Amino acid sequence: MALSPHVPELGALELLLTVARLGSVGRAAAELGVSQPTASARIKGMERQIGVPLLERSPRGSRPTKAGLLVVEWARHVVEAAQALDAGIDALRERRDARLVVVASLTVAEYLMPGWLLALHETSPGTAVTLRTANSSDVAGHVLAGEADLGFVEGPSTPPGLAGAVVAADRLVVVVAPGHAWARRRAPVTGAELAATPLVLREPGSGTREVLEMALAPYGGAAKPRLELASSTALKAAAMTGAGPVCLSELAVTEELATRRLVAVPLADGLDLRRPLRAVWPAGHRPGGPARELLVLTRRSGPSARTGWQPAPRLDRYTAPGHPKHSSES
User: Fold this and answer.
1) Model pLDDT for residues 42-100, shown as the tens digit of each residue
2) Which of 84, 125, 143, 320 has the most CB atoms in a 10 Å sphere around its CB?
3) Sorting pLDDT into bands at 50, 70 and 90, what band is 325?
4) Contact in structure between 120 and 290 (CB atoms under 8 Å)
5) pLDDT tens-digit map of 256-266
6) C-alpha closest to that of 274 among 171, 184, 145, 196
7) What share of the chain is helix, strand, coil (3-state, %, to 5)?
8) Contact partners, residue 94, CB within 8 Å, separation at least 6
9) In angstroms, rounded to a whole number, what is the distance separating the alpha carbons of residues 183 and 179?
10) How far is residue 260's CA from residue 220's CA, in Å, rounded to a whole number?
């Protein structure tokens, strides 16, 4: 049943109880953090709303009228019930805030997220984290659908419907097996040459694929891929078996380049394969609780100095022990 228009709002009832307890509108206003004129106006408005005077005012202060005493008693039960409700809501929020669901692109999940989650565990050991992986376009869909508290994507821009912040910088590299002809090249591969060469690439919808296609658009676009594979691990394996040139994140091939199992191909200066890595969340809803804490940790970690690109601060390198499954608990 709808309440009548004579029922005051909760804040006004709390003010009335405070005046009755302290015997002064001024002292009640100070305790509740409002000005005395505001408190007086709220009391007068409540008296008009109810239709009876609630306080007797004198130079010594204010005290409830006979009708006011009744309203004070009724109001006490209402405010106590509201306080119990408030405490219950806080308990629910604490339980909710003890869980965090993150969905991240494969590059971020494999090579950056382990270090970030370790840092989160050190600051908030009671937070249970579920990490899911997807390509960047699917990450956006999960976040928009409310299936994750925070997402991490690769690519030149924030997906529609989401807000975001750059948390790291990355660069794509083209790598080949040591026996490939490009491994012995001295002259850089040009944009036109790379665009005309069938490459081994990530699937459509991945941030890696999007950045490469944008970089090759001025040269007529990328040729039809030799192979399309769904993970960095698969791309590296294809490159090492001689399947052809592979384009993937520099983060993914640090060890292989250091041990010469793969060779980075020199590229012409006009090819810009740098990209930001972003945290994303629904537009108009800033992350809170553990999601906000994780976001702060990622931005505090500092950006990758390898790329020389500085829209984000320097990010320490983290290497995951293995490819994350569809879901993992930390």
Assistant:
1) 999 999 999 999 999 888 889 999 999 999 999 999 988 988 888 777 666 655 557 89
2) 143
3) very low
4) yes
5) 999 999 999 99
6) 171
7) 45, 20, 35
8) none
9) 7
10) 32
